[in-house]
Amino acid sequence: MATALDIGGLPAVWLRDNCPCPLCRDPRTGQKLFQITDLPLDPVAADVREHGSDVEIVWAPDGHRSVYARTWFEAPAEPDPRSEDAKSLWNAAQLPASRFEFDWNDYARDPVPALTAVQRFGLALLRGVPCVEEQVLAVAGTFGFVRETNYGRLFDVRVEERPNNLAFTSVRITPHTDNPYRDPVPTLQLLHCLHNEAAGGDSGFVDGFRAAALLRAEQPDAYRALVCTPVPFEFRDAHTRLRAHRPIIGADDAGRIREVRFNNRSMGTLRLPAGELAEFYAAYRAFAEILGRPELMLTRRLDPGDCVVFDNTRVLHARTAFDGAGRRHLQGCYADLDGLASTLAVLDRTVGDAS
Ligand code: OGA
Ligand code: ZN
Ligand code: ZN
Known about the structure:
Layout: H1 12-17, E1 44-51, E2 54-60, E3 65-69, H2 70-74, H3 97-100, E4 101-103, H4 104-109, H5 112-121, E5 123-127, H6 135-141, E6 155-157, E7 173-176, E8 188-196, E9 203-207, H7 208-218, H8 220-228, E10 231-236, E11 241-246, E12 249-251, E13 257-260, H9 274-291, E14 297-300, E15 307-311, E16 315-319, E17 328-335, H10 337-354
Parallel strand pairs: 4-5
Antiparallel strand pairs: 1-2, 2-3, 5-15, 6-17, 7-16, 8-15, 8-17, 9-14, 9-16, 10-11, 12-13
Helix pairs in contact: 5-10, 7-8, 7-9, 8-9
The chain binds N-oxalylglycine (OGA) and zinc ion (2 copies).
N-oxalylglycine is lined by residues 157, 167, 173, 178, 203, 317, 319, 330, 332.
């Protein structure tokens, strides 16, 4: 027999705000039809009855009637899908190819494993993606929407004669997240390899959440300095002037890691009292040293047909220098995690509905 449900400790306003009845929620859209200020100031559950798996409440003073499923009361709070609590943090050795590499044809049949890897590990590598120009846009279109920027809908990563970014040269690029000078940043990045015949130019990926968690454990004061100091990031070329003031490590109010922005190329001049500057720089260096630990970096040379999809608020990417005489050409684009999460949720629901 079902035990009596104790709603005594639950705030009446919370229960009223979550009333599922068609006067409170539009049955077509499921969206709420009232404002918080439309509710009685002091609603009282005047009568509570259980009918099988439902609980009915009649409210005073207005006589409104709410019916809730018992299971609704018992649902756990969902963790923020963007925070470290919803992720699996990794060192390179903990991320074998089988966990993040997927064949393009398998992906086309069932994208769920690869998209889940992006959510969980922050990274998926699709192999055997057709080696044609602009294919990276089609890959983004399989799960979401391209985020156009000043670099275009897509950007070519190859040696340019007049580069506006060091990515478009053959120099080494140390672990970084892209576009920290944008607010909000593009939360996903894709890089699709069309040619990689140059000596060098190997790719590396680092779990920035793992690195931030290590800093928090090893040097809590340094961690705090990076969470608390907004840093001016900037980008400028002949047509563009972008600036964003955000901390290197973003954490929520409960202290959970949520975002990493790290890019030595585009950090502007921080202006603070001298003592705070010294403290920040010690912390910045400490984090950079952790990010540089070899055991953290997953190294993987991209072959033509490889397309990496990664969480640009978490996973840092890098490449070694390459010999500019050899041909190396990637095409990249940005997209966002919300679209990917939505695609995954819809696919998961379809699986659930079919069973
Ligand atoms: C980039 C970048 C790395 C590479 O385009 O954002 O970091 O492998 N490129 O060339
Ligand atoms: Zn209602
Ligand atoms: Zn980059």
